Amino acid sequence: MNHLAHAYLSFHQPSLITGNLIADFVKGKRQLEVFTPDIQRGIRIHRAIDTFTDQHPATGKAKLFFRPSCGLYSGVYVDVVFDHFLANDTARFTEDSLYAFAAEVYRVISQQADALPPAFMEMFQYMQQYNWLYNYRTTAGIERAFRGITQRARYLETNASVITAVFIEHYAALQSCYETFFPQLQAHVEKLLLTENR
């Protein structure tokens, strides 16, 4: 899953939000042990989310729509697409509550900026400046995210406009994949957190 889902599945707990968002920038046991146990827990939850997502049949189905145009990068684009549907999921967010949630996440991260990986903070500056978490809700925001991925993808020759066209063409089917998948992911994370709290 992408940034919004990881933040959302931290359930407003600052340490979980932090760990969930920085996890991709923390490599190896030595780097992990720099952080408090609660942030380490967020990093573990992030990795559990990624494993569950990669193995879920609905994610596999969604990847098939993108695979002809972007091959092994299809999973990266599906992550962003699922954030779009989460941002528009009226069972979880209104437009105003999404905006407030994004501001909450930025505040949590900004308060501990000096203690977080520099590479993450470099990315976070763009996340906050362009309000990625909120703007995932719009097609323009998703297209901007697609362009960013395409520019950073070393071995991808597909233009971002092609990826956007796939997204728009298969919008309803991709939304159906999200609706099948996300409640199961949330239940999985809630169960993991309950187990860890025992």
Short description, anyone?
One of its GO terms (biological process) is fatty acid biosynthetic process. By secondary structure, the chain is mainly alpha-helical.
> Percentage of helical residues?
over 70%
The DSSP helix count reads: 12
Beta-strand fraction estimate: under 5%
Order of helices and strands: HHHHHHHHHHHH
Distance between the termini: 26 Å
Give the strand tally: 0
Tally of distinct domains? 1
Structural class: mainly alpha
The residue-averaged pLDDT reads 94
Keywords: Hydrolase, Lipid biosynthesis, Lipid metabolism
Protein name: DUF479 domain-containing protein
Organism: Chitinophaga solisilvae
GO molecular function: [acyl-carrier-protein] phosphodiesterase activity
List keywords for this structure.
single chain; 198 residues; mainly alpha; 12 helices; 76% helix; 0% strand
Descriptive notes:
This protein is an all-alpha fold and 198 residues long. The chain has one domain (3-197). 76% of the residues lie in helices and 0% in strands. It is built from twelve helices and no strands. Helix 4 (37-55) packs across helix 12 (171-197) and helix 6 packs across helix 12 (171-197). The longest helix is centred in the C-terminal third of the chain and has 27 residues, at 171-197. The chain starts with a helix and ends with a helix.
